[in-house]
Amino acid sequence: MKKIVVLFFAFSLILLFTKCKKVIDRAPVDSPLAARNYSVPELKAIATCTDACNKRFTSDATFIGVVLADELSGNFYKEIYVRDRYNTGAIRIDFLFSKCNFFIGDSVRLNLKGYDVNISSVTGMMEIDSVDYDRHMVHFASGANPQPKIVDLGQAPYSNSYCDLVTINNVKFLAADTGRIYADPILQQSLNRTIQDCGNNQVIVRTSNFADFAQQKTPTGFGSITGIATAYGGASQMAIRRTSDVKMNGTGGCTVYSFEDFNDNSITNDGWGQVSVVNSSVNWVASTFGSATFAKISGFISGNQNSENWLISPPLNMVNGSNPILSFKTAANFSGTPLEVWVSTDYVSGLPATGTWTQLTGFALSPQGGYIWTNSGVISLNAFKSAATRIAFKYKSTTAGATTYEVDDINIREN
User: Fold this and answer.
1) 216: burial class by Cβ within 10 Å (0-12, 13-18, 19+)?
2) Class (C level, CATH) for 149-250
3) Are 153 and 166 in contact (CB under 8 A)?
4) I need a labelling partner for 139 at 20 to 30 A (CA). Which of 47, 322, 332, 362 fits?
5) Based on the number of CB atoms within 10 Å of its own CB, is 6 exposed (0-12), middle (13-18) or buried (19 or more)?
6) If you ran DSSP here, which 8-state letter would residue 51 be given?
7) Alpha-carbon distance values, 271 to 29, 314, 316, 354, 372 (Å)
8) So what's the pLDDT on residue 16?
9) Residue 221, C-beta contacts closer than 8 angstroms, at least 6 positions apart
């Protein structure tokens, strides 16, 4: 009897220490190698179909990719994130049960037959839910080293990267979230900590109280962070895989030449000013809607008016700049002449014609309808580094059309 007990405990210990051992699963019987393989864009087309299309796979099909995040640290539960073999996107795969036999760098194949592909109404992310990994998923290779995609929060929407592994550079935790634990396993609280880039764009870093690094503290300083781009309840988030993916030990910061959000309810504070070229009745004004304050101009005064008015920045010393950039937001309504953006290195005062101006292109403007706030994206100012660089927004209207424009968060900084 003693020998049986000893053997039983020895066998239990073997099971315990091999529970998370990395092993290659046997291919499921119903995992067809010759079936059509789907990319993430193709799955997204199915998931977003609104024309009574069937989002459930009723015949053999596969999804093949590399694991970007696993359950090993405890920050992810019954889920992994996988980038497709074409490197065109990633998806969240939710399991029926928790298991640690799929690891970062593993190549996996999922038989899609019987599963739905959806955009979650809670997270806004694309996912395949309730996967039975024992029957329909196989790990067939190891050792891949998936690289993160570099994301600039001021450019393409963060939502374009949901479910993928991303790196955000030149960020720091907000002062209120610096030197704080990622989550609280004692009170069993998952917590949000917020990072911010030099463009004042923010993303929540969400950490589960089950993460093995929950009680470690967020770093100080600037640097980079790598993790899975996620979301919840309409808010963009990030979930890190391990704290070594957070490299924020830098002592540098953000060089901001000018940031104007008009929250002081003034157009002319902070050195900005306006010059009327045609029709002094049409002016830039500070306007508030809800909690937002912004610069606003309209050439409609008891009818459409001919006008031209420039909103001009103070002189900015960028002569020693490395990679200066400009970004801003616009909202617009009604049809008319599109807003223009110009830059000068020799304008001093008076009418704009007294200086030499270059029109900037290659940025996004709000559509002329509905007041839809639109990020411009990043505009390079490398060709205009001087001791007195000025940025100007040129507004024009005619009797044929007078668009109302709103401008906010004008940010001129080092990239």
Assistant:
1) middle
2) mainly beta
3) no
4) 47
5) exposed
6) S
7) 71, 5, 10, 19, 28
8) 40
9) 172, 248, 249, 250, 251
The values of phi and psi at residue 69, to 5°, are: -150, 140
Listed by start position, the domains of the chain span: 23-141, 149-250, 256-414
Q: What is the pLDDT of residue 198?
A: 80
Tell me which architecture the domain covering 256-414 has in CATH: Sandwich (2.60)
Helix (H, G, I), strand (E, B) or coil at 255: coil
DSSP codes, 160-192 = GGTTSEEEEEEEEE-GGGTT-BS-BTTTTB-EE
The residue with tokens 């970007």 is: 68
% of the chain exceeding 70 in pLDDT: 91
Distance CA 120, CA 223 (A): 32
Does 256-414 match 149-250 at the fold level? Answer: no
Contact 168, 151 (CB under 8 A): yes
Q: pLDDT tens across 213-239, in order?
A: 999 999 988 899 999 999 999 899 999
CATH of domain 23-141: 2.40.50.140
> What CA–CA distance (Å, rounded) separates 330 from 352?
22
Q: What confidence category does residue 15 fall into, taking pLDDT thresholds of 50, 70 and 90? A: very low
The pair of structure tokens assigned to 367 is: 């559509």
